[in-house]
Design a protein that fits this description.
This protein has 19 helices and eleven strands. It is of the alpha/beta class. It folds into three domains: 123 residues, no CATH class; 57 residues, Alpha-Beta Plaits; 174 residues, Rossmann fold (3-Layer(aba) Sandwich). Strand 5, helix 14 and strand 6 form a beta-alpha-beta unit. The relative contact order is 0.09. The structure holds S-adenosylmethionine. The site of S-adenosylmethionine has 17 residues, from helix 14 and helix 18. This is 16S rRNA (Cytosine967-C5)-methyltransferase.
Length: 403
């Protein structure tokens, strides 16, 4: 075990064995590893393996530093006057008004003190894209999609996302779930976006080990994502066409009125779904593409399509910097194919629901318009946009019905 990275309790494997400065050094090391091509999660995992001395609070603090930089990479680089891990951390901490002298003090494993040149932080950026922490090419797309909300939305994406839970109403009610969570040190408050949604206000790191979670009383799920499902028609045969890990399928199953089939082009993504469904006490069948076709028609087909994830860039901030115009066009092609395939599976008078966690018109309204231009006999029965807020992620959903 390295010794100088830890404080005076270095042999006790405490939750917070590292000094604040050592945590900054760790974040710098991880950001530098990312500039050599590692993804954030890979770089964090590698650091954690090499840093067994770090306690859970240390790991959480280092992770927060890294993801804070990813959300604010452009302003961090601007204030830090460079792209190195050290420059990014200095820029971020300057922007956060942190005590730089204390953090960059060269003691133990803390980073060396800032040089005079590093300390010459520039004044606030005049450039709009930098100020909004967006790549240049995305600014017009934000303007087109969000109009006067564009700046506020981009700025909201700089902050940490809320941690939301879905109370499994198949098992319990909201008040009982809150009590159960409270007994285990997790404080919550009702989230206005959906009846079963809670926002975690304290003890988020205890959720995964809690009885409430392990016994299926609550699931981690963004509140806007829950609201999208809550707006869907109840009853009947339902196909979750892009089920992935099954978050929406589980939410769909909760009211017990629907017979649910989950499908994904990559069935491995649904690998945990049977266990998650069993834990939640709900029934979800998984099916391959051929079985899904044989089993048509469905009263409701939900397409929770792959997308840029721009509405959820607070959680997956790397996407903001790795998305390209070419990839966006590629995603649009996939989204069109999914809608075309799914439309063939919907019963007469049935509903085709399309959802993305994207903010961009290209992935949302434009895909729906293109679908309607390709297919006669469908009409929009509902269309909703969810803003990026302290309550939930940005989302888009449309319900199309067969005339
Ligand atoms: C946004 S994710 C789904 C998330 C999931 N619904 C949830 O709530 O946890 C999109 C999923 O669509 C799947 N997918 C991509 N192309 C597809 C296609 N042509 N048909 C069906 N699924 C597809 C991907 O494998 C991915 O798992």
């Amino acid at each position: 075990m390295p010794t100088s990275a830890v404080g005076s309790d270095q042999n006790n494997y405490k939750d917070d064995a590292m000094t604040p400065g050592a945590r900054v050094s760790a974040a710098i090391e991880i950001l530098d590893a990312m500039s050599e091509g590692l993804a954030a999660e890979q770089a964090l995992t590698r650091w954690a393996r090499q840093s067994r001395f770090a306690g859970s609070k240390d790991r959480a603090a280092v992770r927060d530093h890294v993801f804070d930089v990813l959300r604010r990479r452009r302003t961090a680089a601007y204030y830090g006057q460079g792209e190195s891990g050290r420059a990014l951390m200095a820029g971020l901490l300057y922007e956060q008004d942190a005590d730089l002298d204390n953090l960059f003090n060269g003691q133990g494993h803390a980073p060396q003190p800032l040089t005079d040149q590093e300390r010459a932080f520039p004044s606030a950026p005049a450039d709009r894209a930098t100020r909004l922490n967006l790549p240049d090419w995305l600014v017009p797309l934000f303007d087109q999609a969000l109009g006067e909300k564009a700046d506020a939305t981009a700025l909201a994406l700089q902050d940490r996302a809320p941690i939301c839970l879905r109370v499994n109403l198949a098992r319990t009610d909201v008040a009982k779930a809150q009590d159960l969570l409270r007994e285990e040190g997790v404080e919550t408050q009702p989230n206005p976006l959906a009846d079963a949604a809670l926002t975690v206000t304290e003890g988020a790191r205890r959720i995964r080990n809690s009885r409430a979670f392990s016994e299926g009383f609550v699931e981690l799920q963004d509140a806007a994502s829950q609201a999208v499902v809550a707006a869907l028609p109840g009853g009947g045969r339902v196909l979750d066409y892009c089920a992935g890990g099954g978050g929406k399928a589980l939410a769909l199953a909760m009211d017990g009125t629907r017979k649910i089939t989950a499908h994904d082009i990559d069935p491995r993504r649904m690998g945990d779904l049977p266990a998650r469904a069993a834990r939640s006490g709900v029934q979800i069948d998984t099916a391959a593409t051929a079985e899904v076709k044989a089993g048509r028609p469905y009263d409701l087909v939900l397409c929770d399509a792959p997308c840029s994830g721009s509405g959820a860039w607070r959680r997956a901030a790397e996407g903001k910097w790795t998305l390209t115009a070419e990839r966006l066009i590629e995603l649009n092609g996939i989204q069109d194919i999914i809608l075309d395939e799914a439309a063939t599976l919907v019963a007469p008078k049935g509903t085709l629901a399309y959802a993305t966690c994207s903010l961009l018109r290209e992935e949302n309204e434009d895909r729906v318009a293109a679908f309607l231009a390709r297919h006669d006999g469908w009409k929009i029965s509902q269309m909703q946009r969810f803003d990026v807020t302290p309550e939930g992620d940005g989302f888009f959903s449309t319900q199309l019905t067969r005339e």
